[in-house]
Design brief:
Layout (H helix, E strand, L loop, with lengths): L2 H12 L13 H4 L4 H18 L3 E5 L4 E6 L3 E11 L1 E5 L4 E11 L8 E7 L4 E7 H10 L4 E5 L2 E11 L10 E6 L1
Length: 181
Amino acid sequence: MTLDEVTKKIIQESGNQLDNPWLNSKNYTFKTLPKPQDKGKVGVILYKQLLEQSKYKTKIVSDEGDIMYHTPDCGWVKDEVKTASATMKLRKRDNKYTTEHWFNQIRPSQDSWHGIVLVAVFPSYYQIYRMNREEYFRNRSIGTAGIAPGHTGTDELDQVFLVDNTNKNVYNEWELIYEGE
């Protein structure tokens, strides 16, 4: 057997699918992408496809994780796109998952974006959320929607931490604009 075959066999024998829903999942290859930039590109492309399906003209802003699209009412609109995979922990007491997504390096001081788009990847599907700039700063000022100023090493970047557990569901504080496979 090859190293890959042996590794897969050991994972299959020792891994409990309930403890790790990513094992052998439909979106497992996303979880294994080596660089955060690659995961970000996936999110930008998925959002671009959604916009194009809605008949918008689009442009990817290179190396920024941003996308621009043209609307008849507003002209060109720029959204900052962030992508993350789910961390899922099985709760023994109810046999359901606590689900978390952490999106980092959001640039609040950058004036050019109109909205923040979060692409939340799960083992078998993905969701796209959006919040416009005004709502973002309103939620940021009162500490809701999972938005927190500051990120490792700097106060110039924000982070968004979405969580769904027995006490709260922060995902519901963002507008779900698409769910796909």
